Amino acid sequence: MATDLKELYPDKEITLVHSRDCLMPLYHSKIHEVLKSRLEELGVKLITGTRAVFPPANLDHDDTKVVLRLTNGQELVADLVIPATGQKPNNGFINVLPTLQFKDPAYPKLFAAGDIADTGAQKAAKPGVVQAQVAARNVVAMIEGRSPVERFSVRPPGLHMSIGLKKNMKFINPNVEAGETEPTVIMRDDGKDDLGIERVWKRRGINVTDPRDYHL
Predict the structure, then answer these.
(1) Are 165 and 4 in contact (CB under 8 A)?
(2) Which of 107, 75, 76 is nearest to 94 (CA)?
(3) CA 169, 22, 24, 46: dihedral to nearest 10 degrees?
(4) Would you give the DSSP letter of residue 69?
(5) N- or C-end of the chain: fewer Cβ atoms within 10 A?
(6) Which DSSP category does 206 fall into?
(7) Between the CA atoms of 143, 145, 147 and 152, what dihedral angle is there, to the nearest 10 degrees?
(8) What confidence tens digit (pLDDT) does each residue in 131-178 have?
(9) Terminal CA-CA length for the chain
(10) Cα(198)–Cα(203) distance, rounded to whole angstroms?
(11) CA 34 to CA 191: how far, in whole Å?
């Protein structure tokens, strides 16, 4: 989001505050190097190792600047603050077997897939889709009187992310079990807006011809 905003509004000062010392710590440390370099290229200010004191007292006031205080004592004055801290469940995730059935033997006919399931995989769309397919096939197997034998296998985390309006990156952590030590990094500047998201709509039978058509 920070890269897109800077390209859309190059005269604006964009600041990204991140609580960890490195960006996206789930991934190999090289992703921090790549993203930091891209942010510097665009002129986005990066502040790491501190958190925002949230919410600011005047966040909802449209007629004044927002003063955002950080836990390191620093203060930022902004026109707009976009919180992007994510969420955590109050009581944890659902423990599942590799078949995605509940791990609790009292509930053999209940399945969990996606972000709610504690599979050991990253919380992302691609693993979620694979988990849904595994769970669906196992449900069908049980309906047909067969054992649910299909299993979900955790793969190294990866992502496809925008790093600008027309630039994007594919990043996959190394498969340590296979002896890999370096991540896969594929940089793209293919001239397509928004990662070519219109193809996802087309797969669902929706023809998108204007960016405003994305709005639901």
Answers:
(1) yes
(2) 107
(3) -70
(4) E
(5) C
(6) -
(7) -20
(8) 999 999 999 999 999 999 999 999 999 999 999 988 999 999 999 989
(9) 20
(10) 9
(11) 20
